[in-house]
Write a structure and sequence with these properties.
heterodimer, A: 274 residues, mainly alpha, MetI-like fold, 2 domains, two-stranded antiparallel sheet, 70% helix, B: 285 residues, 12 helices, 0% strand
Chain lengths: 274, 285
Amino acid sequence: MINQDGVWTRWFRYLTCLVLVVWLIMPLIPLAIWSFARGWFFPDILPRQWTMQAWEYALSETAGVLDSLWLTIGISLSATALSILVGVPAGRALGMYKFKGKEVVELMILAPTIVPGIAVVLGIHSVFISLGLTNTVQGVILVHLIPTLPYMTLVMAGIFSNYDPAFEAQARSLGASPLKTFWYVTLPAIMPGIIVGGLFAFLVSWSQYILTLMIGGGRVVTLPLLLFNFATSGRNDITGAIGMIYILPGIFILLLTAKQLSGRSGAVGGFGRI
Amino acid sequence: MSDRLKIFLLLLPAMSVIILLFFGGLLIGLMRSFNYMPVIGLTEPNFDAYIAVFTDEEFYLSFMLSLHISVTSTLISCVLAVGAALLLRRAFIGRAIINFLFQLNLTVPHLVGAIGILYLFSQSGTFARLAAEADLITRPADFPALVFDPFAIGIILQYVWKEVPFIGVIVLANMQSLGENYESVARSLGASRWQAFRHVLLPLIFPGLLSASVIVFAFTFGAYEIPALLGANYPAALPVLAYRKYTDVDLAARPEAMALALMIAVLSVVMLFFYIRYSRRKVRS
């Protein structure tokens, strides 16, 4: 019955496929065009003049876009590294052990994936003021742990539920120290999970807006904040260039991990947060 | 080392982060919303902030707007995503392309999609220019307001753009692991295509669809930057209203902001609760 489709069904399928392809890439096209346009006014369908000015501006040392790019990379890498450090042990506990209250612990770790950032960040802000963490990079990194840690933990719990601790016991009985056992036995076995979970955590942190805006207080200007500022100030050409730069890491990560994104992995839920 | 101690130590760092930052943030927000903060001398809790919020017409308008945005975006995204997944589960030429575009779209932050929608649908955007080219309009103002509009069309378009691939990828994985045997049996027993979909496939993919929808609903209800960029000034979406109140020069508005934030949290927790109850019942039956 699979090959029973008539001509009309096939045409319908090709047509919807075409509509879908156009719809999926459409919003990115004006951004890309704007980044090369000079004075692209209504009602011109295409710019009259093409220029590299927006890119030259965005990539110049003085404009601050590059500073913002390095800052964003630094914040996302730090948040990812902390998520790995904290999430791997938690994933091990949840993946390998059954214990009393496990459901409650799981629920608590899952909660930040559903509850929106704005709901918690206002309260955090008033505490961070007294701790001197507002308007600092450290404060922003810390608050980025809220959305990144759950996904890291979930991915690692999945890895550890298929993990056999007998190898560790063998290494220990052969005289390896706990540190050596971890380095040579455990770490290689869980590395795929760390990589996938880490890339997810990076992307989730990379896309944070309101957490950075509130805790950074406008002083910590990551790429999304800069992008928003240019978008609302009407500099469409520079917005286009920054927008293109901003989506690059995601595309790069996609090319690295396309297979992991098939939707079978529980980590795909992380994309609801980007 | 006993297992209990081991589990405790393994969980300690993660639970500290979650409890101190996440639940701590919620708790402080709750206390401030009742004007209760002993550290800064506020020792007598009251309901002033809630009274102020509930007697303000803007709150009801904002709440309804946010509800409209999430319900409409989630429903449209679900329908289109299931349709797209049905299209994509059969092998054909376009499948690899769409699959790649779905994944690409998943990695593009919402903010970039929002700016794209702004450049496409604003009154001097791409579609307005195409309409002018076709002599349908003469001035930008003739083009219907699709962004900054009272019906939040631009916001919903952006969410649909971003969430169809998200739900689609999850539902597609679900369908592919189910295979087509169940439907084949239904069809051979005389069910129509619609019946086979409605009574066989849909109930099977429903749990996955529901879990994706809960994530989408909570996100679209609580996201700030998309309505801040594409929304009308008044009424603003609930998260935008909360942010405005919090950053108001009048510090007295802060407890109101906390109250609004808490209501967003409560709604998402209710969603989480129903989701867990429902998905567990599904698993048992």
